[in-house]
Amino acid sequence: MSTIFMSKKEIPVRYEYDVVILGGGTAGAIAGIAAAREGAKALIVERYGCLGGSQTMALVTPIMPEGMKEGNAESSISKEIRLRLQAKGFAHKYDGNNSSWFDTEMLKVELEELAIENGCDLLYHTSFVDAVMDEQKIKAIIVTNKAGLEAITAKQFIDCTGDGDLAVLVGAGYTKGNQNGKNQSVSLRFEMVGVDMNRFGEFLEQGGQADGYTRPPLLSTYRGNLSKTLDRVLEEKCKEGYVTEQDIHYVQLFSMPGNPTAISFNCPELGDSKNAIDPIYMTKKSIEGKQSIVRLATCFQKFIPGFENSSIGQIAPMLGVRESRNIVTEYQLGIDDVMNYTKYPDAIAMSDYEIDIHGAKDEALTQKSYNKSLPLNEQYFTIPYRSLIVKGIDNLLVAGRCAGFDFYVQSTVRVQHTCRYMGEAVGIGAAIGAKENKAANQVDGAIVREKMITYGSDLR
Ligand SMILES: Cc1cc2nc3c(=O)[nH]c(=O)nc-3n(C[C@H](O)[C@H](O)[C@H](O)COP(=O)(O)OP(=O)(O)OC[C@H]3O[C@@H](n4cnc5c(N)ncnc54)[C@H](O)[C@@H]3O)c2cc1C
Q1: What is this structure's pTM?
Q2: Is residue 1 part of a domain?
């Protein structure tokens, strides 16, 4: 590959903060809210025009259950968001299955309101391009937007990009993929509106689906495990050429609270890859995904009862990337820690969600390992704060799916309730560091944990 040199430029320092969070997604939005709530002057920098990341821009709903018998595994801010959405009719939480279903559009609004109420500043439509170091400390990040290049200085930085973009740029180590270097499958999600839920529910019940999720407002199903009628039609229509094997190999559907005719499709799943964040690959999958969505939508409209008058409501602007890089942190949480339910003194999250690998499965792991949370038990594993401290960089924390986990652990902690816990922990940790003039890697995780408990996070 040929290279080119970029001339040195003088860049205006437009913003100066205590804590800057790069990426306002699932973990990042919460990190900003938590840091501001803790008294820090905090800024979230986000490339899109809203908060929520994969939850809102990749249309990922619902929040998966934490897999624990007693339930109650929510960080304090996550709980507050759910309760606020629930009060307005835009979220549900179900007994016996602590998943929380929510409306992807209204989450954007609620997150923004909460950020503003807590005094967290937002800078949208801004991507990051570079960083300026002072030995092991990040002095500034360089961002790009309609104003050109701008510098932002801060005492503490938090990487919530999902891919560890900032950490990698400043030289942190990382791992990627399974033992063969394969990443999990990517998906492009979409929503259909104008669905007759009662008619669709009856159709699912005819196929033997009787799990209680077949009537509005609660409706969910997935191919191969629930309704035989849906499976039969999809398989028949695949043989007739309406959809491809790839289109229907993973099909999962959910209703959305507050949106009585909408169904969120967790598909099409577009195969696994060696590099889920290669821009050429991502472009290709974004094009393939839309073609697949049109085939699936047409098939549902023509052949699935309830979808006769439906249409595509939206196609996710953001490709759904389940896993890419994992940053090397002070403690890399491994599969044994999770399978042994290790409890840490600086635990900032708890869960017993399953090992959930899409594509790139590992033959050495048994079915029991994959379904570790079934049946629900009283056990849970924890995430130590040290798994969020980037190794080798003094003032950089990382949260969300790209934090310090091995490939298998990543597949369980990548779900939203754990990403939100991590966001809350790094927001508090960075704010304490800024207040006490300490680098983020000098803050005691046990104190962060205590603070989280005081705020109402479920941590045992
Ligand atoms: C298809 C799919 C289905 C899933 N299903 C479920 C499910 O049903 N339930 C569940 O709980 N979890 C599910 N997950 C997992 C979960 O949604 C994600 O792992 C989680 O939301 C990731 O959170 P995050 O904060 O790490 O990243 P994100 O929420 O993706 O946030 C990253 C943010 O950083 C921003 N960003 C990235 N780079 C830059 C940059 N250079 N400059 C500025 N901003 C940047 C992005 O725009 C984004 O807002 C699913 C994931 C996928 C992909």
Answers
A1: 0.97
A2: no
